[in-house]
Amino acid sequence: MLEAKDINLYYGASHILRGADVTAARGQVTCLLGRNGVGKTSLLRGLTGHAPIRSGTVTWDGELIGRLPAHARARRGIAYVPQGRDIFPRLTVEENLMTGFACLPHGRPRIPDQVFELFPVLSDMLGRRGGDLSGGQQQQLAIGRALVTRPQLLVLDEPTEGIQPSIIKDIEAVIRLLADQGEMAILLVEQYYEFARDLADRVTVMDRGETVLSGPIGELPESEIRRHLTV
User: Fold this and answer.
1) 20 with 39: CB under 8 angstroms?
2) CA 168 to chain centre
3) Residue 89 carries which DSSP code?
4) What are residue 222's phi and psi, to 5 degrees?
5) Which of 35, 91, 95, 120 has the fewest CB atoms within 10 Å, i.e. the most exposed one?
6) Model confidence over 143-194: pLDDT tens digits?
7) Cα atoms in the Cβ-side hemisphere of radius 13 Å centred on 230
8) Can you give the pTM of this predicted structure?
9) Cβ-based neighbour number of residue 221 at 10 Å
10) Are 153 and 180 in contact (CB under 8 A)?
11) Which domains does the chain have, with CATH numbers?
C-alpha cells in the first residue's frame, strides 16, 4: 500500500502542497479529485520522485521512499503515466514500449502479452512512430509502456484528457480490470466526478494544496465532493 502523509512541496518560494495526504491500496482505484491548480499533479510528482518534497513521509509497502530518486521508485514497482502522455514521438510504438525495460532487472526482458491483450491496437502499430498516433492511441501507448515495467502501483495523471469518448470507456475498463486482479494499486488524477463515481473505490479531494476529503466513495456525500470541483 502507498501512504503519503503531511506532504509539503515548494516550487521556489511558492508553497504548493500544504500537508497533503493520500493512500492507495492493492486491488483498489483511488481517484485524486480537485479543480485545476490545486496541486494534484504536484502531489503525483512528489510521490513518484519527479519533484522533491520539503517534508512529510511517503511509504510504499512499509518502506520510506520519500527521499529516493524517481528511477529507484520505478524499480520498486511504481509506474507513472504523466499528464500529456510524454511518449517519444520519433520512436516507433515498439521502441516506446521497450523504454520500460530500463526499470527491469538485467536479462532478456520482453513486452508482456498483457499489453497487447489490453490494447490490441498497439500490436498492429508496432512499426509506426509514436507521433503519428492519435491522442487516444498515444494514451494507450503510455499506459502500455508503464505496464511493461510490471508495476505494483500505477499512477496516472488525467488519463482521459483530450481523448475521444470511445477510448475513454476502453481505458476505464482496463483500469478496472487491472485493479480487480488484486495485484496492483492504482492512483489517478481526475477532474470530473462522474468518471470517479463510476470507477473509483476511494477518492481524495484536494483544494488549495490541501487534502479536504478522503475515504471510500460510497461514504462521502456527493454534494461535498462536487463543492470542491465546481468553479
Assistant:
1) yes
2) 15
3) T
4) -60, -40
5) 120
6) 999 999 999 999 999 998 888 888 889 999 999 999 999 999 999 998 888 8
7) 6
8) 0.94
9) 9
10) no
11) 2-84+151-227 (3.40.50.300)
Residue position matching grid coordinates 500490436: 123
Q: What is the tens place of the pLDDT at every residue in 18-31?
A: 999 999 999 999 99
Instruction: Give, as one character, the DSSP assignment of residue 188.
Output: E
d(CA 226, CA 231): 10
> In which element (H, E) is residue 210 found?
strand 210-216
Whether residue 9 contacts residue 38, with contact meaning beta carbons closer than 8 Å, is answered with no
Q: Are 146 and 44 in contact (CB under 8 A)?
A: no
Dihedral pair phi/psi, residue 164, rounded to 5°: -65, 150
Which single residue is written with the C-alpha cell 513486452?
111
Cell, residue 141 = 501507448
